[in-house]
Amino acid sequence: MNLLGGPDPTFLPDRPEQQAALEAGQDPVEVVTGTPDFSEAWAALAEKSLADGQPVTAYAYARTGYHRGLDQLRRAGWKGHGPIPWSHRPNQGFLRALAALAKAAQAIGETEEHNRCATFLADSDPQAPAALGLA
């Protein structure tokens, strides 16, 4: 029961095979190719592109992961607002894609998008920005 009067937290379903593949070092391109709705693989691609100094590519990967994650959140009962806990492992792919989108947007001069994504991340879980380097 939510005593604060807001919506209950949303918890995405576990994706053990895909998560294990990434944790074992499988190329995120291979994971996306088999499961294009897996936001965590898109987030990994975006983060790698950011690290490689390719913000436009990162923006595209992050935006894809973000939108695939929104689809999954809606299927899980999310109504467009409310907590998306960072501590729940399956939520981390979406939140990572959102953070990567904020970083890539900032890198290409898309300030409004950066601010919107950073705010959405903090609203989803106040712990997420620090965990993802946006605090």
What would a concise description of this structure say?
This protein is mostly helical and 135 residues long.
* Cα-atom radius of gyration: 14 Å
User: Unreliable stretches, pLDDT < 50, 5 or more residues?
Assistant: none
Question: Based on the structure, what is the oligomeric state of the protein chains?
Answer: single chain
Shape: globular
Helix count, per DSSP?
7
Biggest sheet details = none
* Structural class label: mainly alpha
Q: How many strands?
A: 0
How many angstroms does the end-to-end distance come to?
A: 30 Å
**Average pLDDT score:** 95
What string, H for helix and E for strand, traces the elements in order? HHHHHHH
Work out the strand percent: under 5%
**Share in helix:** 55-70%
Task: Write structural notes for this entry.
The chain is mainly α. The chain contains 7 helices and no strands. The longest helix has 21 residues.
Write the layout of secondary structure elements.
Layout: H1 16-23, H2 28-34, H3 39-51, H4 55-75, H5 92-107, H6 111-124, H7 128-131
Task: Please give a handful of descriptors for the protein shown.
single chain; 135 residues; mainly alpha; 7 helices; globular
